[in-house]
Write a structure and sequence with these properties.
By secondary structure, this protein is α+β, with helices and mostly antiparallel strands. The chain has a single domain (about 10-215), classed as 2-Layer Sandwich (BirA Bifunctional Protein, domain 2), CATH 3.30.930. It is about 45% helix and about 15% strand. The chain has ten helices and five strands; from the N terminus they run H-H-H-E-E-E-E-H-H-H-H-E-H-H-H. A five-stranded antiparallel β-sheet has the order 1-2-3-4-5. A hairpin with a 4-residue loop joins strand 3 (about 95-100) and strand 4 (about 105-110). Helix 3 (about 30-50) packs across helix 9 (about 195-205).
Length: about 220
Amino acid sequence: MNNSIISKEAFDILKVLAKNNNKEWFEKNKSVFKKHESEVKSFFESVKERLSQHDDIEKMKMFRIYRDVRFSKDKTPYKTHFAGSFSRLGAHLRGGYYIHLQPGNSLLATGFWAPNKEDLFRIRKELEMDASDFRKIISDPDFKKIWGELQGDAVKTAPKGFDKDHPDIGLIKNKQYVFVRNFTDQEVLSPNFIEDVDKSYRAIRPYFDLMSDILTTNLNGESML
């Protein structure tokens, strides 16, 4: 059965885990933790259900609580958050949705976190040619009210082959094209949180529609699919 709220108990177990991030505690409390993890997964399924009413979603993925510590200085074995992602369907729909639930650090993220080399070059060439549609969408007051400013890592100088004096070089230098919306614990635990999540995801669609069009066409606007 789907669940449309995040319980205080689900947050509390994460707080306790953060203070007892070791295998002994986790094994002792695993059944309780798994119960709350299952409740959160049900919440993510409810989010997917709502998303599917206005977008084509291929799958929902809930990330495992276990950390891969092989190449990390931090050897704590468990994450201290719940997280899930929602993939859009097919090569013609680009972008994805992410949700991160953690006491004091909950957020939604969306956009293009790690575009491959070809996609990144195609986005940059589009912005080099004409960034007006892109800027119109991300500067829309209703859009900005929900998602704020474009975020993401950028290169320090102009990418190879691009003019450092281009008027849109600030956008072209980006390596990521993402938006993040933060939530307080009170907002996450509110009965209205799932509505806020869905409203936020709905609001990103103009951006996704533009980026999908860019990434599935060449610079002449001809389909590459």
